[in-house]
Amino acid sequence: MPRNLAELTPQTAWLPLEAAPAFDRRMAAHLFRRAGFCASRRELDEAVAAGLTATVKRLLTAGERSSAFDEEMRKFAEVALAAGNPQSLAGWWLHRLRHTPAPLVEKMTLFWHGHFATSAAKVRDARLLYDQNELFRRHALGNFRPLVRGIARDPAMLLYLDSATNRKNHPNENFAREVMELFCLGIGRYSERDIRELARCFTGWEILHGKFTFNTYQHDYGTKSLLGQSGPFDGDDGLRVILEQPACAEFLCGKLVRYFVTDEDLPAEWIAPLAQQFRESDLAIAPVLETIFTSRLFYSERAIGQKVRGPVELGVGLLRALEINTNMIQLAERLRELGQLVFFPPNVKGWPGGKNWIDSSALLGRANLVRALADNIPPRSAAGPASGEQIDQLAELLLAVPPPAEVRAGLIAQLEQAGGMPGALRQAVSVLGALPEFQLS
Amino acid sequence: MNRRLECLGCLLLVLIWTVGKARAAEKSAGELLPASVVAYVEVPQPAKVLDVVFDHPLARQLQQQPEYKAAQQTPQYEQLQAAIQKAEGALGQPWRKAAAEIGAGGLFFGVDLTTRGVVALAAASSEAQAAKGRDAILELSRASAASIKENEHRGVKVHEIGDAGFAAVGNWLVASNKRALVWQVIDNHQGHSEPLAGDEQFQSVLKARTGQPAAWLYADLRLLKLIPGFRQAIDKKSDNPPVELLAGGIIGSIPDAPYVTAALDLNPAGVKLKVALPCKPNETAKKREFYLGGEARGVAPPLLRPQRTLLSAATYRDFASLWRHAPDLFDDGINAKFAEAESNLTTLFAGRNFREDILGNLHPGMRLVVTRQEFPPDGITPAIKLPAGAIVVRMKSPEETAKIFKITFQSVVGFLNVTGGMNGIDPLDLNSEKVGSALIVSGEYLPPRDAAKRKEAPLHYNASPAAAFVGDLFILSSSRALAVELAEQVQREAPASAGVNSSLVLDAAVGQAALADNRGPLIAQNMLEKGHDRAAAEQEIDRVLALLKNLQRSSLQLAVKEAGLELTLEVLLASQP
After folding, report:
1. At CB < 8 A and 24+ separation, what contacts does B128-131 make?
2. Taking CB atoms and an 8 Å cutoff, what residues of chain A touch B449?
3. Min CA distance, B532 vs chain A (Å)?
């Protein structure tokens, strides 16, 4: 495995990991931290036994085997929606993240939620937000093209961007601008004229009674010139033109790499191989993710421990790793304090992520969150493993990089001193959760 | 001679000691407690109380709950168990058996005004048992307290831990958070001080007591009123209208009441608490006519009993009088809110003055009923099923008032339709119909456009607001079906019971069924609040629903008698298999 960065180049970075050394527990834990929300001990055992390729395949296809869970979550959502309150919906999603058998699907749903950010602070109809969330989930690992077409008709998105009406005499440029700048191309890859022309394509696209409708009387049937192409385009034509731009694949793959691999902005030549694959697969998402999760770069020093955990990753990850449960409404509230309440992104750009998650007060808040969640650990059974082994297992589950030797030794001593006393394990998790190393993924 | 005199002296001393001891053994708790005790509690048969509580099938069920078992894993529980084991070791027998012997003659508590302390007295079966109890406390205290001092007071050994103290005094085991109280008990035991039993009021109350409750409380309000904070609290104007509405008459009677007593009956079938406040209700009624009626003769209307009644309450309250006397009853902040509300409500009630034309046109008395709703299989079923509720009042001049109420109801429905339309809620379809002699005006939400949502409809589909007019009665209900049922029922109801000011009945079996109707939402709530997966949440909710089946019925009644007020709370448990 190329641990040394000098061995990697843009051409070799995305090549599959060599056979040796074997896919070990640390690598498996890294994969689950990034492609999901941490692994439990059992999941690590299964992953190591199955090997890298099979584990990645299993992660990519888990959604196909989760129909019973999906149905249960749908019923659960109906009850949360009956209260009509987005905070309950946030609790519902956190519950789903904690228990999902398809963590990568949920991780991607969270990615799309940040990418196509829509906030309940403005769109107060919980039902519309739920429908949008389901749209993200349906296309989480599918094709970018129908996802963008879906979001262009999504009532929550259009209400959020004040684009519930778009009349031919006054084309609304808000949605058109965000499609180009934030959703598909990135800033600097279009002109103001392109925005105006795309807005004309979307005229007549309206939201009525919480549903998308096409108002033929308000559509501009004239010729539009968009990014070098001309025609009597409608909204779908406009989106087709945008998605055909080479910049689209580069933009989206760049975001995926930042989300899954490293907080650092990699130069364009490092992204290019992924973008090419994305274009060649007609904007299918799963093949790109498979390349990422089996790549040499993903298991290199440039990736492991090179991302700051987001609050949702931190909270849900701890619950999943330790297989514990908590009050999801309270967890949502604590995550809001740490800056990431799902369904409430700060603005249309979503959560900035990376180092922005961390400041001195956030560190204290994160340590408090870990302590509060650790209180849900049941009292330790008398027949647990030896203290040293127990601390190493915890570190393996929770940390991307090993804890400092003196911290490890201190925790082992504490655990031994406490004997079988309940609370000793909680204390150990709290100490690990307050380490700077714990903030890294 | 000297020798004979010495012997005679010794004999005399032994005799005095023996006679004194015999007299002391006969002393009651009232004779041992100081006269400054403001609250006295008596548990004559603690062993019986322990038997009822710990041997009840419900207690056994609770002990099977996972929460109970989880609590047994906590350090606090382990510490408690260790303490019990230590105590049992010191006592040489299981704690319940020891408690029965140490408290064989009863358990007594006193709250003392002078020392601001609480003292507990246990009348043991023998001096040896009392001493055994003291030694057990000592053993336990040694394990936890930093310093235990041993002193003597009038020849009795008193163990002191900081301010607290305990001692065995003859057959009595005495413990208090203030050692001075232990000394006073010893003083009284030896006849050196003024006891509570010397108080005439206490004596007469004890003498007049009937029955043998599991626990009995006496509080001397004359002494309590000497506490400045207490006096101010009962004399000051209220800043809380709901509290005034619920308890204003009781609070208003305290200044004239010399004492209060409470008797608790406990048996396997349930619990009954009766609180008596001797006073002159007709004097209280002069200031709080709204609560008790003129000369305290206000009577609550009969309770409503439609099908599936979850809660039914009836009370004598004159809202017009309450509103008129608000300046005497409430502080300035609340009065300002009354003025503001009056202005807004006058607008709502078609320009009629709310105080005079609306409340003034209602007879005193109000009834409230809450029922479990049933939703027809072919109709709309909300995802969360809420109970329906209704209030019933009597109008003084129905010809005029009924029209205003009808117009106001229609206006509110119109307003709801406008605001609902802004929030994407379907409108209410307003209808008017005659059912027998009743006129019923009701609104019904249009069905959801999406047929798939008819079985999991939003919350507002629980409501079909209705206003019903039957003779001089006005019924305002959250559900048309309930309004129709009540309109029919109020025409053939029994007369009100004399002397009952307020009463409330809660049917726990219906409550359990109403919760069971919402099993799905409760499970979802459990998943949210505890993070459980569905199977664990289902298990927990089903356990709670099964536990609730143990409750049968609760009732609360406030009776006004010539001698004072009497409040009775009763909780009945379902019969055990």
Report:
1. B129/B101, B129/B102, B129/B104, B129/B171, B130/B102, B130/B168, B130/B169, B130/B170, B130/B171, B130/B172, B130/B173, B131/B168
2. 209
3. 6
The residue of chain A with its CA nearest to that of B462 is A82
Residue A56: per-residue pLDDT? 97
The secondary structure of B185-214, three-state, reads: HHHHHCCCCCEHHHCHHHHHHHHHCCCCCC
Q: Is A82 in contact with B458 (Cβ distance < 8 A)?
A: yes
Residues of B in contact with A98 (CB under 8 A): 531
Cis upstream peptide for A21 (omega within 30°): yes
Closest of B209, B229, B227 to residue B218, by C-alpha: B209
Q: What is the ipTM of this complex?
A: 0.75
Hey, which residues does A212 pair with through a beta bridge? A207
- What is the pLDDT confidence band of residue B146, given thresholds at 50, 70 and 90? low
pLDDT digit string, tens, across residues A305-363? 999 999 999 999 999 999 999 999 999 999 999 999 999 999 999 999 999 999 878 89
Q: Which of A73, A79, A159, A327 to mutate to test the interface with B (most CBs of B within 10 A)?
A: A79
Please answer yes or no on whether A82 and B531 come within 8 Å at the CB atom. Answer: no
Rounded CA gap, B556 and B569, in Å?
5
At residue B423 the predicted structure's pLDDT band, cuts being 50, 70 and 90, is confident
In the block, tokens 């406490």 appear at A418
Rg (chain A; Cα; Å): 23
Measured CA to CA, the distance from residue A117 to residue A348 in angstroms comes to: 5
DSSP lists the bridge partners of residue A170 as: A167
Contact A319, B531 (CB under 8 A): yes
Residue with tokens 């002699």: B437
Cα separation of A101 and B158, whole Å? 66
* Close Cβ partners of A402 (under 8 Å, ≥ 6 residues apart): A395, A408, A437
Does residue A419 belong to the interface with chain B, where contact is any CB pair within 8 Å? no
Q: What is the pLDDT of residue B505?
A: 97
**Spatial contact of B445 and B416, defined as CB atoms under 8 Å apart:** no
In the predicted structure, residue B419 carries a pLDDT above the cut 50: yes
How is residue B492 annotated by DSSP? G
Residue that is written with structure tokens 């990697």 in the block: A8
- Is the pTM higher than 0.80? The answer reads no
Q: At what angle do helices A41-50 and A25-35 cross, to 10 degrees?
A: 110
What DSSP designation does A153 have?
A: T
d(CA B234, CA B222): 13
CB-based contact, A87 to chain B, within 8 Å = no
Strand B164-169 relative to strand A224-226, pairing: unpaired
- Local confidence band at A420 (pLDDT 50, 70, 90 cut-offs): low
Please say if the pLDDT value at position B576 is more than 70: no
Give me the pLDDT at residue A2, please: 45
Number of neighbouring beta carbons within 10 Å of residue B267: 12
pLDDT category of residue B284 using cuts at 50, 70 and 90: very high
Question: Which is more confident, A12 or B12?
Answer: A12
Contacts of A89 (CB under 8 A, 6+ apart): A77, A80, A81, A120, A126, A129, A130, A133, A343
DSSP output for B223-245 = HHTTSHHHHHHHHSPBS-HHHHH
Q: Which residue has the higher pLDDT, B457 or A147?
A: A147
pLDDT score recorded for residue B305: 95
Which whole number is the average pLDDT over B44-65? 89
Q: Mean pLDDT: which of A104-108, B233-237, B246-250, B321-325 is highest? A: A104-108
Assess contact for B319 and B362: CB atoms under 8 A. yes
* DSSP single-letter state for residue B495: P
Residue carrying the six token digits 């927990």: B540
**Which two three-digit tokens encode residue B135?**
């030694």
